[in-house]
Amino acid sequence: MRAVVLREPGRPVGVEEVELDPPRAHEVLVHVAAAGVCHSDVRLADGELGEGRWPMVLGHEGAGVVEAVGDGVTHVAPGDHVALSFVPPCGACRSCRAGRANLCEPAGRNGFAGTLMDGTSRLHSDGETLQHGLMTACFAERTVVAAAGAVKIPRELPLRQAALLGCSVVTGFGAVRNVATVAAGDSVCVVGCGGVGLQVVAAARLAGAASIVAVDRGADKLVLARERGATNLVDASHGDAAAAVRELTEGGADHAFEVVGRPDTVRLAWDAVRPGGQVVVVGLVPRGVDVAVPGIEFLSDKSLRGTYYGSGDAGRDLPELAELALAGKLDLEGVVSHTTDLDGVEEALGRLRRGEGARTVVVVDPAL
Ligand SMILES: [Zn+2]
Ligand SMILES: [Zn+2]
Fold first, then answer.
1. How many domains does the chain have?
2. Which of 55, 256, 317, 326 could form a disulfide with 312 if both were Cys (CB 3.0 to 4.6 A apart)?
3. Which ligand is nearest to the CA of 195?
4. Which ligand is nearest to the CA of 284?
């Protein structure tokens, strides 16, 4: 089958013919319909998430149709539509038992190692083993994923839209619903309005936030943020953006979401919240990079916290998000700025590196 392979960081990714083994017990073979291109793919392709991660088949948010299931799989059957999740909880580790499925220990370990839950790979090329990118590897015609990584969704939702659920949407919505618990009337600031940031804006609107201040350097992204419910726009390319946010929110927002992953934007978010407010860092800060805030301000009850994968449970959250989309409460089409095919992934990564556009959707099989 054809798949997008990262041979080594810094080199363009390319489409190659690779072999995919059948699913083993507790695994699912999915015919991929579409996949989203995410900034984490750039981080992986640029080698910013650690060594030893290649060769790898990239792609970690996608959707498709179940083609076969391994022994012990009962929650999906061939023909079911599924959204993929790169955090398939094992259900047994300490984190899973504590109800924190997104922190599942074996899922995290294997996701980093590029293996499935039994520690091995189903992907090969001329005898060489390839890694499953974040246990999903969906920039490919087919993929084998851990059972819990294939989440059944309603057939009515177009797969090209469902492709976005498993990373950008669940991450953005989870940050608002599971982490910050934004309430009606709250003020919210969103720093960074790319694929995930736009979902944070949409989720904050759905939660009833009274003001949603979108901050970005890209005028095109601010326009998209307004369309998704931002009430105020701050162009961070000039002036003091944090001061502008404080001005717009009577002294600071109740919640700020950092969706870039850089020390200066974390600081911006910190400076934009009021005493007692909270900053949620959603952005992926590269390995080895420190973040600093003025420590004296902890005296003002401000807090700074992280989140991974929306801090929820994909098996519960993805179907809920699919229902919201079907009910017209979550616009999945509106965040897609480009569509392409597997050959267009490198170009899509380039756009993300340059900060151009929002989501690119890779249509892997136009027939689905
Ligand atoms: Zn992602
Ligand atoms: Zn677990």
1. 2
2. 317
3. 1
4. 1
